[in-house]
Amino acid sequence: MGKYQFSIIMLGDFQIYMNGKLVSEVVCRSKKAKNLLQYLLYFHHLVPAEELFHVFWADTANPKNALKVLVHRLRTFLIQGGVPENVECIIQRQGGYAWNPALETEIDTERFLACFRDATSGQLDRNHQAQVAALGLSLYKGKFLDETESWMDAPSAELHQSYLKLVHIMCTFYQEEGQSEELVNLCQQALQYNPLDEAINRELIVGLLACGRSQQALEQYRYVTNAYFDAFGVQVSEELRAVYQYILDAEEASRLDIDSIGEQLEEKTPGAGAFVCEYNIFRELYRIEARCLDRYGGRIYLGLLTISATHREQINDTVLSRQMAVLLEVARNSLRRGDIISQFSESQYVLLLPTVTYESGMMVLDRIRNNFKQQNPRSPIVILGRLRPLRALDSNT
Predict the structure, then answer these.
(1) Angle 140-51-144 from CA coordinates, rounded to 5°
(2) Fewer beta carbons below 10 Å: N end or C end of the chain?
(3) Which candidate, 87, 4, 1, 74, places its Cα nearest to that of 39?
(4) Tens-place pLDDT, residues 128-167
């Protein structure tokens, strides 16, 4: 029977392929036949007839005959679906039934659990563990079968708990490797199956923060807290609320900083007369303004880039100095000739951006953050960006 290869899908759907051809359509039209086949496939060993009586015909007066008739129908359905008559898929041996072990058969649940066992064995190095975990996650297309039968509850729970553990393994790996976008994508996919899983929501929020998407992080927190309260009538954990407070603190600090910088610059502007500065500054500002004034209609935006730690880490002075140097080089290469950048504090740069709209100015800041992340995927920092227009001087001054 080596020329026949069967591939069984039981996660997210139920399908049987023989040599790449779907052969389970006819079987799936009969709920009883489908359930019996699913049971034999999942346990994948010789199942005693008494066990099948108990699972499927507990209240039937003649379960032996009912089983015999259903097995006959099941074999017929498989043949009608495309399995050759000489290929015996369901065998009867020693008072039990089984999917024929002589057939070359690959079942996604068995492959998934094998990946789980390897990934949690503690015997693989970090990269190999991540590869195996990622393979297991790729096999998990959804929860086990349709969960309409009571016997499915235990396998479904085991498989799903294994899935969640693989998710957390990969979350940790992505965090260690600085792969924030991959972390966000994984969490968003996992939340399709567990929208109220607090741990995954927390990882998603942290990932969004690491990507510089603080507004989305806030929206996700508000969504999950409302959903959690609606479902359970309680608040989310203290740990998740701590992440939320960190977002608020970082956002508020960034907002106050850029307003403060703008006010300081405005306050230093002379009330009357010419703006006095060193010649080299005057010369550079003059050339930039002359070059860009007509093109951008005289509109200039003030931008602020702030280096911040993730909520789990703090930045020491050495790391901060190194990261500031890297950010300056990235920003310089990401900006146009008409833009200006200057260090404002030990963790901040200010920018003058001649640009047409607020949206295009934000695109400049996003480009800097993205370029920094691409060049420094394992960087332990988050870059926050703010933008506001320069206020025109009072014409009477």
Answers:
(1) 10
(2) C
(3) 74
(4) 999 999 999 999 999 999 778 899 999 999 999 999 999 9
Confidence (pTM): 0.68
pLDDT, tens only, 84-133: 999 999 999 988 999 999 999 999 999 999 999 999 999 999 999 999 99
Q: Note whether 344 and 386 are within 8 A (CB).
A: no
Token duo for residue 147: 């969960």
DSSP 142: S
Q: CB under 8 Å to 117, separation ≥6 — which residues? A: none
Higher per-residue pLDDT: 263 or 125: 125
User: Look-up: residue for tokens 């993205």?
Assistant: 370
Axis-axis angle for helices 126-139, 153-177 (nearest 10)? 140
Dihedral sign computed on CA atoms, order 327, 331, 332, 338: negative
Give the model's confidence band at 279: pLDDT under 50 very low, under 70 low, under 90 confident, else very high: very low
Closest CA to 78 of 134, 140, 8: 8
CB 338 within 8 A of CB 395: no
Percent pLDDT > 90 in the chain is 45
Q: Strand 15-18's sheet: what is its strand order? A: 21-22, 15-18, 5-9, 104-107
Q: What average pLDDT does this structure show over 314-318?
A: 79
Residue among 161, 183, 162, 181 at smallest CA distance from 171: 183
Other Cβ atoms closer than 10 A to 56: 18
Q: In angstroms, what CA-CA distances link 45 with 41, 162, 234?
A: 8, 22, 45
Q: How far apart are CA 110 and CA 108, in angstroms?
A: 5
Report phi then psi at 350, rounded to 5: -105, 150
For residues 345-356, one letter each, b for 16 or more C-beta atoms within 10 angstroms of the residue's C-beta and e for the rest, the string is: eebbbbbbbbbe
Fill in the amino acid letter for 70.
Answer: L
Distance CA 55, CA 289 (A): 82
Closest CA to 355 of 305, 306, 298: 298
